[in-house]
Amino acid sequence: MSQVNPAEYITWVQRSLNRILKIDLPTNGQDISAYRTAVREFKRKSLGTSSNDDAVDRETQDALIRQNEMTEYYISWVQTQLLVLGHANLAPPSGTKDSKTIGAIKGFQLSQKLSQKIEADGVVGFFTEAALVRITRQPPPGDIKV
Q1: pLDDT, tens digit, for every residue of 39-73?
Q2: How far apart are CA 113 and CA 116, in angstroms?
Q3: Lowest-confidence segment of 9-23, 24-38, 108-122 by average pLDDT
């Protein structure tokens, strides 16, 4: 199993926090105080924690993924990238995570051998998003304000 690049992972978290909290963190992979404050705020709002814990543990990561997948423009981005990669059944992107989208994500995860790192489950977490970005060279929305 390959190692996760810490800066790439932090960038993923930063983009996710920007989308979810509607803030403007730099997406530079740096673990700075504003990043840690945003993690605490996300945990307070999404997980109900009130401590000063700013670690992105498995529970926090899972909550970030769930929140990302509830964001229409994020799912539209995923669908657009999969469409570019040949999943024509997703045209036009709807922004809704339906069974076709889940199937296309699973197919992508399997084709990229992501199942060696994660379960091919149709969920767009760090590894799946990183593979989409690496192949299509299109970053996900992360600095979009609603």
Answers
A1: 999 999 999 988 788 999 989 999 999 999 998 99
A2: 6
A3: 108-122
CATH number reported for the structural domain that contains residue 56 in this entry: 1.10.101
Q: Is residue 128 part of a domain?
A: yes
Domain membership of residue 129 (yes or no) is yes
Question: Whole-angstrom Cα distance, residue 77 to residue 60?
Answer: 22
CB atoms within 10 A of CB 133: 17
**Cα–Cα distance measured from residue 65 to residue 105, given in angstroms and rounded to the nearest whole number:** 14
The pTM of this model reads 0.82
What total number of domains does the chain contain? Answer: 2
Roughly what angle, to the nearest 10 degrees, separates helices 33-42 and 58-68?
80
Query: Are 75 and 51 within one domain?
Result: no
